[in-house]
Specification:
Structural class of chain A: alpha/beta
Oligomer: heterodimer
Largest sheet of chain A: 9 strands, mixed
Number of helices of chain B: 28
Structural class of chain B: alpha+beta
Order of helices and strands of chain A: EHEEHEHEEEEHEEEH
Number of strands of chain B: 28
Number of strands of chain A: 11
Shape of chain A: globular
Strand content of chain A: 25-35%
Number of helices of chain A: 5
Largest sheet of chain B: 7 strands, mixed
Helix content of chain A: 10-25%
Strand order of the largest sheet of chain A: 2-1-3-4-11-10-9-6-7
Shape of chain B: globular
Strand content of chain B: 15-25%
Distance between the termini of chain A: 11 Å
Largest interface: A-B, 33 and 36 residues
Radius of gyration of chain A: 16 Å
């Protein structure tokens, strides 16, 4: 199986994502944002970073990149799409995910480990986690405060599309555990069909004990096993 | 005629229409003394044009020409078998094994940051990144070494907050992890903050490229951002004292950074280097096109000729003078291989950047500038870059500082009241307290290589595909240097080396940033000379040569100099990442062993600053032989896998060092039960900042071997206690006196100090 890692001008986690995909035994390939044609890929990953310097609004310019004209139909056809950090912001700007990521409530960039609770294990991206499992994964963002109108939030919660939530050590989604002011402590959501996941924390930075955590590995193994299951 | 004066001669150049006439006032405004101006005339064989005067002014500023420091810098050791590139290039380079080389350098942005903290700090990071990737190395880590006045001033909080945001935003956007640094708050830096940024870059040996212009006829190309009117004469500005009105009138001399363009320029530059389409590349940093072109010509032993109307500019009507001296950011000068200009353009276009041929390499040794084909500057390149006059001055210690050093501290040795109160005061001082408020604003984990994040003794990044890692730290206690420059500078090198061995790295080399006041004053020159000598002795003792760095003089506001602050940026190598050691205690029941002796000084300590508002006394002495033995012993213990944790004793003394080991990152603190029995006053045992000490913890089954190893290296060592359960709290005794507190009280003081100051609503301050 083959995974596309899109590089926008200003992406800076593309290399980390590429290595994470390789680590779980899948083939990764960088796709420059001007390249067209994603048909040969089994999944498309949008990395973190500062596409177009976050100018105007994070993700607002990147969503107009040529490659997005292929990412949208790829997602609409049910192809797995994962956006991390700036990738999540791009997915929201492109309308593939609802809501918006606004400035952190602290008005500061926040970079440290957070705890996440896995809310759903029946997605393409989380099947190798245990329900309710608590993960320790780094965040690094200035605009990660997830907001949506009341109806959208209700729909997200009612249909169980919140996949990750910021929690404390005991697994409670407290205000203190929320690093950016996100509504309902939301850290990651999927689209209605469940094939598009956006999340602010960086699972690709939690792949090795040496670097502090291996809690991100299962996200990538989940993706690989669901894809190889689908193609088998 | 010396070699530097060269044989190339300047041809007559008519004055350019609209340029001011050169008067003695104009010369003085350009920072040149009458003698220096006569030297310019001698080199030129005629009067310089206004454009030429601007070029000399920038190249002969302290910032570019090192005129007051060069003779001293020559005293520093620069060689070792592992040094691939010593001083003189954009960055130093050392071998780190397995075919990899490490480029690293530190640079200051003090003056711009005093005027516009956010942009000043941001462009400081931008500049140091470019110094690294122009060597062919990919930047893998940033560190920042900062100094400010006391945080009770609103202006200082504004400067501190702005600098941290600037360092963060720039590095975060480009995607280079920040792995450490330091900050000190002391009234000695009020009005003139210090902002030094260090960068590390990794490359394969064969990817090393240098900044020289050779190959007659080779095209010179300007790549990256366009040239605007920002930062004109920044280098000269950086070489003057700040005055009270500097913050307003000097704003136009501060550059504005664009980290997004920097990221594109970084990728484009590395791709250019890999393509082989270029033979030289240099950042247009301080003094812009002037310094990059003349230095490349100087190093290549060649000349350059450039047409100013071919330089891509941001605004119409820029004069050659402005174009030559602009310090617009995110620009590079490259020497292309003849015939491969289009390849260079294609690579830049892919990264959505511009490249334009602006001139060519010549063989006549001249730095020649044209405007519409008319020569407007024609200067012999070598005397321009190498002929800057250098001075050796008279240095005399200030009586005032000598008196401070000899001050009687005896009344402070017997404290009034509860020592635990003093302990909490010192632990919660911004100089000792956790710097989380800072580094939680920095991306520390991007590039997935950070094995030890900020908050430890040194930052560590692993080298992917190998078992190796590199470690880095920045250190300098300006108070020690102020009180006794030679000892203080030795202490800076010694502390850096201790920090590295505490994470398991062998100290390898340093880059230095000499931040001082006005060297034309005898007592400042004394500080500079003494500090360089101290640094020399320590670097020789530890076999850590100096591979480059930066000098920032004239750090004064309204005639008052900063503490002399020779910041040491040291790098080290770890050959097996499984041997990385961390600061925090890990297991209940582990023994705590103190290595090294307390030499008994309380001078310059944080304790005196917070309890008596005093910077006085003898700073801790430094015994280089003992320091070296301590480093060797700890490396040996680590090699034999005896250690669970290791932490240097520095600001706040043993009490604060133990508290830091106990608290760790705050996630899972552990208790401490310890006692020291030294022939010293308890205050000195607890809070003295004696050098040459490291606290380690180990499994009790290894304690004997730890003590034996120490003995073998001649290092004093004794078990002072053990790690206990968190509920048992923190307790440390010294000859009948003791400090004790529950861990949550320590954590609140230690982690809460900076947020309480910086995040409080203004009305609560």
């Amino acid at each position: 199986m083959k995974v596309a890692v899109v590089t926008f001008p200003g992406s800076n986690c593309d290399y980390d994502l590429y290595k994470a995909v390789q680590q779980v035994g899948a083939e990764a390939e960088f796709v420059w944002h001007r390249e067209r044609g994603l048909d040969r890929f089994d999944a498309v990953l949008l990395p973190g970073g500062f596409s177009y310097g976050d100018y105007l609004r994070p993700g607002a310019i990147a969503r107009m990149s040529p490659v997005m004209e292929d990412v949208i139909p790829f997602a609409e056809k049910g192809g797995p799409v994962l956006g991390i950090c700036n990738g999540f912001q791009v997915l929201c700007e492109a309308g593939l995910l609802p809501g918006a990521l606004v400035r952190n409530d602290s008005l500061k960039f926040r970079s440290h480990d957070v705890r996440l609770r896995v809310e759903r294990v029946d997605t393409l991206f989380t099947s190798d986690y245990a329900q309710g499992q608590i993960l320790r994964i780094p965040i690094a963002h200035g605009d990660g405060n997830f907001e949506a109108d009341t109806d959208t939030l209700k729909a997200l919660e009612d249909s169980g599309r919140v996949v990750f939530r910021y929690v404390d050590a005991s697994g409670e989604p407290t205000e203190a555990a929320n690093p950016n002011g996100s509504w309902h402590n939301i850290a990651g959501i999927t689209n209605e069909a469940g094939n598009v996941l956006g999340m602010m924390p960086h699972p690709e930075r939690a792949m090795e004990e040496l670097l502090g955590s291996t809690d991100g590995v299962a996200l990538f193994t989940s993706l690989v096993s669901s894809l190889s299951g689908a193609s088998a | 005629m010396s070699q530097a004066e060269g044989t190339a001669t300047a041809t007559p150049v008519p004055p350019r229409e609209g340029d001011p006439e050169i008067t003695s006032e104009v010369v003085a405004d350009h920072g040149l003394s009458p003698e220096e101006y006569q030297r310019v005339r001698k080199i030129m064989g005629r009067d310089p044009t206004f454009t030429e005067l601007g070029v000399f002014s920038a190249m002969w500023s302290e910032h570019c020409g090192y005129k007051n420091s060069k003779r001293l810098l020559r005293l520093l050791p620069t060689k070792a078998p592992w040094v691939i590139q010593g001083p003189g290039e954009n960055a130093g380079v050392i071998d780190v094994g397995d075919g990899y080389a490490l480029a690293f350098k530190i640079e200051s942005h003090n003056h711009p940051s005093a005027v516009e903290p956010y942009q000043g700090a941001a462009t400081g990071v931008g500049g140091i990144l470019r110094d690294i990737f122009t060597m062919g190395a990919r930047p893998v880590a940033v560190l920042d070494s900062l100094r400010f006045g006391d945080l009770d001033s609103g202006r200082v909080r504004y400067l501190f907050g702005g600098v941290v945001r600037g360092v963060g935003d720039y590095g975060n956007c480009v995607g280079i992890p920040n792995i450490g640094g330091e900050v000190q708050f002391d009234r000695g830096y009020e009005g003139n903050p210090i902002v030094n940024a260090m960068c590390l870059g990794l490359m394969k040996h064969e990817d090393l490229i240098t900044a020289s212009a050779s190959g007659t006829g080779s095209p010179l190309m300007a790549v990256g951002a366009r040239t605007g009117r920002d930062g004109i004469h920044g280098a000269t500005f950086a070489s003057e004292e700040l005055s009270e009105d500097a913050d307003e009138s000097s704003r136009p001399q501060v550059q504005v950074g664009d980290p997004f363009t920097e990221k594109l320029l970084l990728e484009a530059s590395l791709e250019l280097i890999a393509s082989g389409a270029i033979s030289g590349i240099q950042d247009m940093g301080a003094a812009g096109i002037t310094s990059s072109a003349s230095e490349m010509a100087g190093r290549g032993g060649s000349g350059v000729e450039m047409e100013m109307t071919d330089v891509p500019i941001r605004e119409e009507g820029m004069t050659p003078y402005e174009i030559l001296l602009s310090e617009s950011q995110e620009r590079m000068l490259v020497v292309a291989e003849p015939g491969r200009e289009d390849e260079v353009r294609r690579i830049l276009e892919k990264w959505e950047l511009e490249a334009a041929v602006i001139g060519r390499v010549t063989d006549d040794g001249m730095f020649r500038v044209l405007e519409n084909g008319q020569v407007v500057a024609d200067i012999p390149a070598l005397p321009l870059t190498e002929g800057c006059p250098t001075y050796e001055r008279e240095g005399v210690e200030s009586d005032e500082i000598r008196a401070l050093r000899e001050a009687d501290l005896s009344e402070h040795l017997i404290p009034e009241g509860d020592l635990t109160k003093s302990f909490l005061l010192v632990l919660g001082s911004p100089n000792v307290a956790s710097k989380r408020w800072i580094y939680h604003q920095y991306d520390t984990t991007v590039r997935t290589a950070t094995a030890v994040r900020p908050g430890g003794d040194a930052g560590v990044v692993r080298i992917r595909g190998t078992d190796r890692a590199v470690a880095a730290t920045t250190d300098c206690n300006g108070r020690f240097v102020y009180l006794e420059p030679r000892t203080g500078a030795m202490a800076a090198v010694a502390e850096a080396a201790r920090n590295l061995v505490c994470v398991g790295a062998t100290p390898t080399a340093i880059t230095n940033n000499l931040n001082f006041g006005n060297p034309l004053k005898a007592h400042i020159y004394y500080q500079l000379r003494e500090a360089v000598l101290g640094m020399r002795d320590a670097c020789e003792a530890f076999e850590t040569p100096v591979t480059g760095g930066n000098v920032s003089l004239f750090n004064e506001t309204d005639g008052r100099a900063i503490y002399p602050t020779p910041v040491v940026g040291m790098v080290g190598v770890i050959d097996d990442v499984s041997k990385i050691v961390r600061q925090a205690f890990r297991n209940v029941g582990d023994d705590i062993v103190l290595l090294g002796d307390n030499s008994g000084e309380l001078g310059g300590s944080e304790y005196l600053y917070v309890t008596a508002d005093l910077v006085a006394g003898h700073p801790p002495s430094v015994d280089l032989e003992k320091e070296r033995a301590l480093q060797q012993a700890v490396l040996r213990m680590n090699h034999d896998r005896l250690l669970v944790s290791a932490h240097d004793c520095s600001e706040g003394g043993l009490a604060c060092a133990l508290a830091e080991c106990a608290l760790g990152d705050g996630e899972s603190p552990l208790g401490v039960r310890a006692a020291v029995d030294e022939d010293l006053r308890p205050v000195v045992s607890l809070f003295g900042e004696s050098q040459g000490r490291i606290v380690v913890s180990c499994d009790p089954s290894k304690t004997d071997e730890v003590l034996r190893t120490a003995k073998r290296y001649g290092v004093p060592a004794r078990r002072i206690g053990s790690v206990s359960a968190a509920e048992e709290g923190f307790a440390l005794e010294a000859r009948g006196a003791s400090v004790s507190a529950p861990l949550d009280a320590l954590a609140d003081v230690y982690f809460g100090a900076l947020p309480r100051i910086m995040d409080a609503p203004v009305s609560d301050r």
